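Form 7-S
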Amino acid sequence: MTTVGSNILRVDAVAKVTGEARYAGDITLPGMAHMKILFARRPHAIIKSIDVTRAEQAPGVIAIFTAKDVPNNEYGLIMPDQPVLCGPGSNKPWGDHVRFIGDQVALIVAETELQAEHARDLIEVEYEDLPIVVDPREAMAAGAVQLHPDKPNNILQ
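Output:
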């Protein structure tokens, strides 16, 4: 039996296009907690401080995690030992640096999704902006802004 070059019947197609398909995000269980992520709001910066005081006091908040709360703060999605959460208290060199707007800064766990979103919006982050580089050729040039200080010429291997 070969499937390459063959039309394959999608048994879930009708449910997906009609909106009847259920996804993990559609499931709600009794006592279930919800998590939201605070992403970096800068393309390249050092996080000087993260103040979660107001967020911790928001209704429904169960926990808030930043780099200082994650003792083994590494996962390696893009490069080995990349921090899961960026910010002060990270155990990784340059773990307080964010390198794109999608870097994670904090995790907020609350009783409802809306409570987690509200608490996320109360977190105050102080950034020290760093120069950015957007052209790949410029990024590899001598003297270019270094996104990873231990990776010369911005080349990840």
